[in-house]
Write a structure and sequence with these properties.
With about 150 residues, the chain is mostly beta strands. The chain is built from 2 helices and 7 strands. A 7-stranded mixed β-sheet has the order 1-2-3-7-6-5-4, with helices on one face. A hairpin with a 2-residue loop joins strand 4 and strand 5. The two termini are about 25 Å apart. It comes from Amphimedon queenslandica (Sponge). GO terms for molecular function: protein tyrosine phosphatase activity.
């Protein structure tokens, strides 16, 4: 977790718990201020390639890097731990169904809610790169900020 604790990167972490290991973190080709760090990890299953990306909600200053990561890495499944305040939302959770920032548009195409999990089907488009990506984002809203869950938490 050397990269996560680096002073040039630590300000990009929403919480002190849930930091990515260096060996499975998702590097950006070029993020904000030329930095490749973002709080996100590739997660796979026994010898298989990465199945999904696990992350914290991005901060206001890192939301563009967050969406660039999805496009660069062709992420199809994303798991986001914790809840986010309404004013910090970085995706369309209800009307309007689109969210814009710089050259990126995120469109909500479908949404389901389970006990403590919200599943959102999203389309991401970048005008600059002419890229397009569909993904399913699972938000686990009751994930504790210290990263420790009791057995009956879900």
């Amino acid at each position: 977790m050397k990269d996560a604790f680096n002073p040039n990167n630590s300000w990009k972490n929403r919480e002190g718990a849930g930091l990515p290991f260096d060996f499975n973190r998702v590097p950006l080709s070029k993020g904000s201020m030329g930095n490749t760090y973002i709080n996100a990890s590739f997660v796979g299953c026994l010898g298989r390639t990465a199945e999904y990306v696990l992350t914290q909600h991005p901060l206001a200053d890192t939301s563009m890097d967050f969406w660039k990561m999805m496009l660069e890495r062709h992420v199809n499944v994303l798991v986001v731990l914790g809840s986010v305040e309404e004013e910090d939302e970085y995706w369309p959770d209800s009307e309007p169904l689109e969210w814009y920032e710089e050259d990126i548009t995120v469109t909500l195409t479908d949404r389901d809610e389970f006990k403590n999990i919200k599943a959102s089907n999203l389309e991401i488009e970048s005008d600059m790169n002419e890229s397009h990506q569909a993904l399913t984002m699972f938000q686990i809203s009751n994930w504790p900020s210290d990263g420790t869950t009791p057995n009956d938490h879900f």
